[in-house]
Structures are given as structure tokens and as C-alpha cells.
């Protein structure tokens, strides 16, 4: 697939061929589902906890006599049937971690990238650098390439703190090194803005000869 390469001001600077091994596969919906499910599960702390009858304070004294009241017999005010009592089968701390095979994670990433490419929700721009963080400069670039107001994932060839700091105050815009993205990151953003040199990084990381990611 061939796409145009744009400059910061939105003019065409040429074209680039997207690697078929990453952007031209048949999207696998189940792999994407598994990747998103694992991503969200692994973000959970799993520290939820509620006290049982054995852990809640108080309740040492029998609340009322066994007979003569007409009520059900009770030996403690901490019964789960009482307000303030312990809870039955409440949540306990545990891990939600889901491990996926490397090949499944890589397939999910490639499927998500292919999906965005097929939808024409992918823009490639020439690499540029900034001497100092300037949100206005990144905002004007997004407007020039018709991505203003969209939920955009910017893929950089490597970490660039100046660009990251310039974009972080723009609503809906996220920046990532191209080799660190997940399928969730791609699917959670409607548009992709890829630096031209990041395409090679993506091909090396997620292509047929991709690393262990």
C-alpha cells in the first residue's frame, strides 16, 4: 500500500510504501480481542477487599436473648444479615494478569495497524524536530493534516521528549515510540499519525522478522 507523505504544513512531500507484512495482512479480530482484554486486565490493581464476618469488628456479645422475642436467633451483630455485618463471598485481592503468546500480540498489533490503513485513518508526515516544547506548533500541524479535534496516536521513531511535551496538553492526542505500541493503543485512537522513519521501526518490530514483543 502506497500513501502520501505530508509536511508539517500539510503539503505533499512524496509517497512511501507501507510494508505488506504489517499493514497488508488479513485482520484477525479474535487476536485483537484477546490483546485488548489482556491489556485492560493487566492494568487492574486487584487490591479490592471487603471484610467477612470473621474480620469485621465488634459482635462479641449476643444481641438479644435466644427465646421470647419472636425474632430469628442470632449470636452476633456482625452477621451478614445485619447492617454493618460482614459480607458473604465479597471481593478478595487477586491478580487479573493475562499472558499472551508473543505471536498473538504481534498479530494483534499488525491487525490493528492494517485496520487503520484500510480505513484511510492513517497519515504519514516527514520527520521534524523542535528546539523547545511548543504546543501551538503541534496543534497547527494537526490542523494542517486534517487531524484537528480527532483522537490521534502519534508514532515516533524514538522517544522525543520535546514532541511528547508539546503534544501532551492537546486533548485526545497520545505519543508513543513506534516499537512500544499495543493493539489497544491503536484501536483506542481513531487516527494514526506516523513519522516517516517510524515506518521502518514498525516493520522491524512487528514484521515477519520482528523482535520478541
Provide a short characterization of the protein structure.
The chain has 213 residues and is α/β, with parallel strands linked by helices. The protein contains 7 helices and 6 strands, in the order ββαααβαβαβαβα.
Strand content: 5-15%
Percent of residues in helices comes to 25-40%
What is the rounded distance between the termini? 24 Å
CATH topology of the largest domain: Ribosomal Protein L4, Chain: A
Number of domains: 2
Give an overview of the whole structure.
- By secondary structure, the protein is α/β, with parallel strands linked by helices.
- The chain folds into two domains: about 1-30 and about 100-205, Ribosomal protein L4/L1 (Ribosomal Protein L4, Chain: A, 3-Layer(aba) Sandwich); about 50-90, no CATH class.
- About 30% of the residues lie in helices and about 15% in strands.
- It contains seven helices and six strands.
- It has a six-stranded mixed sheet, covered by helices on one side.
- Strand 4, helix 5 and strand 5 (about 175) form a beta-alpha-beta unit.
- Helix 2 (about 30-45) crosses helix 3 and helix 4 (about 135-145) crosses helix 5 (about 160-165).
- It is elongated, with a radius of gyration of 27 Å.
- The model has no long low-confidence stretch (mean pLDDT about 95).
